[in-house]
User: Which sequence fits this backbone?
C-alpha cells in the first residue's frame, strides 16, 4: 500500500457518510445495553417438521432447562427471535419457513439444526428436499450431526448469545442487503411467480437497510408481477395508486 | 395537589417493580415444580428491554396503537386508585366500584386492538377472553359486594382501616371466609392461569389475543402482565387480608396471593370455555353467594 487509494469521483456513495447518531456516546451505550439484553432473552420458534423435534423437549425441560439462560419457546413468528429449523425441509415446507421468517421482527436469528440443513444429510439425493438452508434464508449458526444431542443445542445457543452480545449475529441484515440473491434462489425452486405477503424491499427502505444487493433482476420479477396485478385493478377503485410501485 | 403528583409517579412505579418480582416468582415457582433451575433474576427486565429494542415493528393501524395505550393506561389508572402503605392516591375520591370499572378497560382495549389485527387466532382468543371475563367477574363481583356490605363502605381506605383496627381477627378472610374463598377462586381465573387459560392456549391458537403482537407491542403486554398480577394481588389483599400496615407485610401478602395461584396452576390441564363458565358459575359463585347470604344474615 505505497500510494494513496484512488478516489472515485462519480461514485460518491461508495464511502458511506456516518450519521451523527452513530458517533454519540449515548447511542453507543444504549445499543450496547440493548445487545446485552437481546443476548439474554431469546424466544425460539421451533420449526419442527423434521425429525429433530424429538431433541427439543429434553432441552426445554428439567434435564437441560434452557430457560436458565433466558431461552424460552414461543409459538408465533411475530414474538420469536430465533427460528430453529429442526432437520430437513421439503420444498413445500421451505415456502412456509420463508413466510414465517419474513413475519419475524428484526433482529432475528436462524439456527439450522442437523446435517439436513447443512448439506441435505441423508436426503442428499432426494428431489423433494432442500439441501442448503442458507441459500434461501440467512442462517446464523448450524448444528452438525444426525441427531445433534441437547448438549449441542445448548452449545449453539450459548454461541449465538455470545455473538449477539458482541453485535456479530447480523444474518437478518444480510437478508435485507442481499434480498435479490435470496429471492433468486427461492425463485429457482418455486418458479418465477413466487412472492410473499411481506414487502421486504419496502421494509429495507423504511428501516435503512437498503443496499446494492437488495434489488436486482430477481426483484424486478416481483415488480413485473405487481404491474400485472395492478393493471387489473379497476380505475375507480379507491385504493388504486396507494402504495403503488412500478417498474422503473 | 403536590401530594398527588408524588402519588401519580410513585404508585405506578412501585406497581411495576413489584410486578416484575411477581412475574419472576411465577416463572421460578413453575420451574421449581418442573424441577428446573428457572430464569435468572433479571429475566423479566431483559425480556421487556429486548422487546422494546426490536428494530422493526408491525402496527396494524391506529386502533392497534391506541389499544396499547388503553391497556397500560387502564392499569396505571387502577394503581392510582389502590391504596398502598404510605400512598393513598385517588382512593379517597374514587371507590371500589370505580376501580372495578377501570379494571375492565385494559381487556376491552385489548379486544379493540386484536380486532384490528385481522388474525383469526386473535379473534378467537379475544372472544374466549371476554367470555372468560364474564365467567370470573360474576363470582368476583359477588365477593366484592359481600365485602362492601360487611364493611359498610365502598371506600378502600376505610376498608383497610376497619381491618387494621381489629387486627388479624377482623380481616376479611377471618370474618367472611366463604366470600374470601370464592374471591380467591375468581382471582385465579382473573390471572389467566391454568385451568382457565383457554384464551391463551399457545399450542392451539398461538397465544390467542397476543398472536399479532410483536416488538414493543409485546413489550407493553409484558408490562401489562406485571401490572395485572400486582393489581389483582393488591385488591385481594385490601379486601380480605387487611391491606398493608407497612411495606414488608404488605408485599408478603401480595406475593402470597399470587403464589397460591401459581403454585396450584401447574397441576391442572385446561378447561374448555363452556366447562370454565359452568365451573365458575357453579363453585366460586355458589360459595360466594353462600358467603353473601351469611353476611346479609348477620
Assistant:
Amino acid at each position: 500500500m505505497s500510494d494513496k487509494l484512488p478516489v472515485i469521483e462519480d461514485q460518491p456513495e461508495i464511502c458511506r457518510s456516518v450519521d451523527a447518531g452513530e458517533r454519540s456516546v449515548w447511542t453507543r451505550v444504549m445499543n450496547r445495553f440493548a445487545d446485552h439484553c437481546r443476548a439474554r432473552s431469546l424466544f425460539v420458534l421451533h420449526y419442527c417438521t423434521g425429525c429433530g423435534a424429538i431433541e427439543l423437549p429434553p432441552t426445554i425441560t428439567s434435564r437441560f432447562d434452557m430457560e436458565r439462560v433466558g431461552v424460552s419457546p414461543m409459538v408465533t413468528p411475530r414474538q420469536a427471535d430465533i427460528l430453529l429449523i429442526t432437520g430437513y425441509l421439503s420444498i413445500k415446507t421451505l415456502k412456509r419457513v420463508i413466510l414465517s421468517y419474513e413475519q419475524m421482527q428484526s433482529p432475528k436469528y436462524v439456527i439450522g439444526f442437523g446435517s439436513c440443513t447443512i448439506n441435505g444429510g441423508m436426503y442428499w439425493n432426494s428431489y423433494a428436499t432442500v439441501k442448503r438452508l442458507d441459500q434461501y434464508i440467512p442462517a446464523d449458526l448450524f448444528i452438525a450431526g444426525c441427531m445433534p444431542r441437547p448438549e449441542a443445542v445448548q452449545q449453539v445457543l450459548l454461541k449465538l448469545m455470545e455473538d449477539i452480545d458482541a453485535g456479530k449475529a447480523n444474518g437478518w441484515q444480510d437478508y435485507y442487503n442481499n434480498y435479490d440473491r435470496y429471492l433468486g434462489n427461492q425463485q429457482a425452486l418455486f418458479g418465477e411467480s413466487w412472492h410473499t405477503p411481506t414487502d421486504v424491499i419496502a421494509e429495507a427502505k423504511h428501516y435503512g437497510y437498503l443496499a446494492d444487493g437488495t434489488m436486482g433482476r430477481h426483484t424486478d420479477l416481483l415488480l413485473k408481477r405487481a404491474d400485472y396485478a395492478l393493471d387489473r385493478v379497476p380505475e375507480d377503485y379507491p385504493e388504486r395508486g396507494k402504495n403503488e410501485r412500478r417498474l422503473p | 395537589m403536590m401530594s398527588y403528583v408524588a402519588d401519580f409517579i410513585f404508585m405506578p412505579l412501585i406497581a411495576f417493580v413489584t410486578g416484575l418480582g411477581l412475574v419472576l416468582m411465577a416463572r421460578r415457582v413453575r420451574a421449581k415444580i418442573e424441577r428446573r433451575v428457572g430464569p435468572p433474576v433479571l429475566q423479566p427486565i431483559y425480556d421487556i428491554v429486548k422487546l422494546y429494542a426490536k428494530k422493526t415493528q408491525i402496527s396494524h393501524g391506529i386502533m392497534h396503537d391506541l389499544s396499547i395505550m388503553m391497556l397500560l393506561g387502564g392499569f396505571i389508572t387502577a394503581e392510582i386508585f389502590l391504596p398502598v402503605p404510605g400512598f393513598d392516591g385517588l382512593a379517597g375520591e374514587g371507590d371500589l366500584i370505580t376501580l372495578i370499572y377501570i379494571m375492565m378497560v385494559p381487556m376491552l382495549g385489548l379486544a379493540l386492538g386484536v380486532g384490528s389485527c385481522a388474525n383469526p387466532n386473535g379473534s378467537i382468543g379475544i372472544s374466549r377472553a371476554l367470555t372468560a371475563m364474564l365467567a370470573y367477574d360474576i363470582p368476583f363481583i359477588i365477593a366484592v359486594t359481600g365485602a362492601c356490605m360487611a364493611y359498610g363502605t365502598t371506600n378502600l381506605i376505610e376498608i383497610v382501616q376497619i381491618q387494621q383496627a381489629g387486627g388479624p381477627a377482623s380481616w376479611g378472610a377471618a370474618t367472611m371466609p366463604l366470600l374470601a374463598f370464592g374471591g380467591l377462586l375468581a382471582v385465579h381465573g382473573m390471572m389467566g392461569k391454568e385451568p382457565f387459560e383457554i384464551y391463551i392456549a399457545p399450542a392451539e391458537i398461538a397465544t390467542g389475543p397476543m398472536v399479532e403482537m410483536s416488538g414493543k407491542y409485546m413489550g407493553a403486554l409484558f408490562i401489562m402482565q406485571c401490572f395485572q398480577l400486582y393489581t389483582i394481588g393488591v385488591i385481594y389483599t385490601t379486601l380480605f387480608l387487611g391491606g398493608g400496615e407497612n411495606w414488608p407485610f404488605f408485599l408478603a401478602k401480595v406475593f402470597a396471593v399470587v403464589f397460591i395461584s401459581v403454585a396450584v396452576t401447574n397441576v391442572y390441564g385446561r378447561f374448555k370455555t363452556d366447562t370454565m363458565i359452568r365451573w365458575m358459575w357453579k363453585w366460586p359463585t355458589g360459595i360466594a353467594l353462600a358467603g353473601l347470604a351469611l353476611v346479609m344474615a348477620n
Notes: The two ends of chain B are 41 Å apart (CA to CA). Chain B touches chain A through 33 residues (CB under 8 Å).
